[in-house]
Structures are given as C-alpha cells and as structure tokens.
Amino acid sequence: MNHHFLLIVHLICAAIWVGGHLLLVFAYLPKALREKNQHYILDYEKKYEPVGMSALVLLVITGILMAYKYGVGIESWFHFATPIEKVVSVKLTLLIVTVLFALSAQFRVLPKLKNNPGALPEMGFHIVSVTTIGVVMLILGSFVRFGGI
Q1: What are the pLDDT digits (tens) for 59-100?
Q2: Contacts of 143 (CB under 8 A, 6+ apart)
Q3: Where is the signal peptide (predicted)?
Q4: What is this structure's pTM?
C-alpha cells in the first residue's frame, strides 16, 4: 500500500482521536466537574466512541504498516536501536498504556460513573491521561519526518 496514502489516513485518524479527546478535556470535562453532572461525559462518550474507536483501530493498523515500510518490523519492536525504532517503540508503549486506561475506564470507572457523580474526578484523570498520551504520540510521530528521536 502506498506510504503517502497510509500517512494521510493516519493523520486524519489522529485528528479524530486527539481532537475528540481535546474537545472532551476542554469543553465537556470542566462543565461536568463544575456542575457535578456525569451525563455530560457519558453522553459525549456515547456519541464519540464509535468514531473514536474506529479512528484508533485505523491508527494502529496504519502505524504498523508504516513502521514496516520504515524497516521496523515486529522483530525490532522495543529494541530502541535506531531513531525510527525508538519512535515506534515509544508509541507502541504509549498505545499499551492507552489500552490499559481504556480497560480501566470501561470496566471500573464507567460503571461507577453511571450512578455516581463522585466518580467524575477519577474519570477526569483517565480522560486527561489518555488525551496527554495522544498528544505525545502525535508529537512523536512528527519526529519520523526528521529520522526519529
């Protein structure tokens, strides 16, 4: 598959993933915390999740395909030997952390949040953490243009 096409899909999906989380952090989370109303978060999540998760899946697929095009196959993940391997390995590590946050939110925090606005600070921590990780991954991806880190 053409590298430029993969990059375009990857960037559009990154805009959806990171942009959606930035909107959540800066528009919905403060209002939910201020009014102690978890439904702002729950309603946004319900609308955003199908689009956001689809974008995340495409991000992973296009990221892996592009890594292979740069010569970073699964056998060299987490070796941190070359600058591009470092970018790929750090991004994969951050992806794993994101998945752990998502699992924690899905199975631990969201069930509590549905009936208890007192769980908003914990959900806020998850939201801010995943958003920060997304921004860091976006910045790391920009280093590929310069040969890695």
Answers
A1: 999 999 999 999 999 999 999 999 999 999 999 999 999 999
A2: 83, 87, 149
A3: none
A4: 0.93
